[in-house]
TrEMBL record:
Record-given protein name: SufE family protein
Ranges of residues in domain Fe-S metabolism associated: 15-127
UniProt-listed SUPFAM superfamilies: SufE/NifU (SSF82649)
Lineage: superkingdom: Bacteria
Family note: Belongs to the SufE family.
One Pfam family hit: SufE
Protein species of origin: Altericroceibacterium endophyticum
Signal peptide: none
The organism's taxonomic lineage, starting at the top: Bacteria, Pseudomonadati, Pseudomonadota, Alphaproteobacteria, Sphingomonadales
Length: 135
């Protein structure tokens, strides 16, 4: 997975439809999430498209598997995950993920339908990280 910094550098040089294509590309590059993990328990509520996020851990490092049934939404999921993937749970729990995504100005780049679930994705990731960090 590409770093958020690398994605941002590329994103800043693009405009309009090119940014959509980048998001779609990011979604295609997501690690495949096995179908049995796409359950009601891993479904993120409040998204206009179906989004599933499944946390795993290796020691104190968090790793997320994720998928969506919509290409651009899947790219947004990949963008969110690029901020937190394979980082220590304590760091993710304390991270301001929203601020990390601010340079992408998603609210002005995408329709409200496409961005409405982002706070729920972030909340799920932070709650998971907080729970794991506390153990």
């Amino acid at each position: 997975m590409r770093s958020l910094h690398d994605i941002r550098e590329e994103y800043e040089f693009l405009e309009g439809d090119e940014r959509y294509r980048l998001l779609i590309e990011l979604g295609r590059d997501l690690e495949e999430m096995p179908a049995p993990l796409k359950t009601d328990a891993t479904l993120v509520r409040g998204c206009s498209a179906s989004v599933w996020i499944y946390p795993t851990q290796n020691g104190d490092q968090l790793h997320f598997l994720a998928d969506s049934n919509a290409a651009i939404t899947k790219g947004i999921v990949a963008l969110v995950l690029s901020a937190v993937q394979d980082r220590p749970a304590k760091e993710v729990a304390e991270m301001d993920i929203t601020a990390a995504l601010d340079p992408f100005d998603l609210k002005n780049q995408l329709s409200s339908n496409r961005t409405q679930g982002i706070p729920n994705m972030i909340a799920l990731i932070r709650e998971t990280a907080s729970r794991i960090a506390a153990d």
